[in-house]
Amino acid sequence: MPLRFAALPAVRSVIPCLLAGLFLSSPVFAKPAKPKNKVVAPQAPQTPQASKFSFSDLVKNSSATDWRPLNPENTLYLELEKGRVVIELAPDFAPKNIENIKTLVREGYFDGLAIVRSQENYVVQWADPDEKREIKKAKQKLDGEFTVKYAANLPFTRLPDADGYAPQVGHANGFAAGRDPRAGTAWLAHCYASVGVARGSESNSGNGTSLYVVTGHAPRQLDRNITVVGRVMQGMELLTTLPRGTGALGFYEKPEERTPIKTIKVAADVPEAERSKLEIIRTDTTTFKNIIDAQRNRGGDWYKVPAGYIDLCNVPLPVRVQK
């Protein structure tokens, strides 16, 4: 054993003696007086104060500048036998995947395909059930855009509440999102009505030929694992009421169980008279901040105890027909 380790026991035996002499001879190290026990009264839990606003009144009394129309170039119309599903895309969060999806739409890839899956409390998904449809101009493979570098000029209305899936959560240009200031990244959250790109195990195995919509409780564990490209703005009832698939993961086992897709179009390619004239609440306004407060601290005759909290996916994002 080296000398320095062999000498350690002897050194340790000397130190207590030296310290003992210092404590006994120096008034600086005199034994302190025993502190008196302070009695601290228990703090009563604070009850959140009910908001002076109501959600319905805020929407009713909002101004025209509190709303923005959907951009036709970033809006898709999924046409089913029973009606239209309107999807707004979010190019700030998945620009490459969205460009590929619009290329697929414009080359008619989805026309005549079908909804192939409806899983209880989870998702509805559409794709080519036979996997034989030709891709013409769109890319066959595309890297997933699970997160993007956060753009400083993109307005972000942050929620005051903690979130288990992200350091910060809030809303950016009408979409529920998470962000990590240290990494400088942001991403869309898997809330109800979110639209994502289905993929296999490889990160680059999703190219937009198969898309899904969240139809159940928000599966936030998928955040940063799948590319989210947008949100359904109108027509969710056409998807949530579909018969549930009886196969594994809610896939339909027989062709006749599937729901046919008439067509999917980019709204900009549809004659203006045939477009859905929708607008969404702007999430960078005082009105929207008051909406958040009204939902966090609901008042009125029915609520007896305001929650003082709201989950990201429970924040309402009103959509209405343009006035």
Topology readout:
Layout: H1 3-6, H2 8-25, H3 55-60, E1 67-69, E2 75-80, E3 83-89, H4 95-106, E4 114-118, E5 123-127, E6 148-149, E7 157-158, E8 168-172, E9 175-180, E10 185-188, E11 194-197, E12 211-214, E13 228-234, H5 236-240, E14 259-266, E15 278-281, H6 286-296, E16 319-321
Antiparallel strand pairs: 1-15, 2-3, 2-14, 3-13, 4-5, 4-14, 5-12, 6-10, 7-8, 8-9, 9-10, 11-12, 11-13, 15-16
User: What is the number of beta strands?
Assistant: 16
CATH topology of the domain at 72-274, by name, is: Cyclophilin
Backbone shape: globular
Q: Do you know the CATH architecture of the domain at 72-274? A: Beta Barrel
User: What is the ordering of alpha helices and beta strands?
Assistant: HHHEEEHEEEEEEEEEEHEEHE
Q: Helix amount, in percent?
A: 10-25%
Strand proportion, as a percent range, falls in 15-25%
Query: For the record, what CATH class of the domain at 72-274 applies?
Result: Mainly Beta
Low-confidence stretches: 1-32
Average pLDDT rating: 88
* Tally of helical runs: 6
Helix vs. strand class: alpha+beta
Radius of gyration: 29 Å
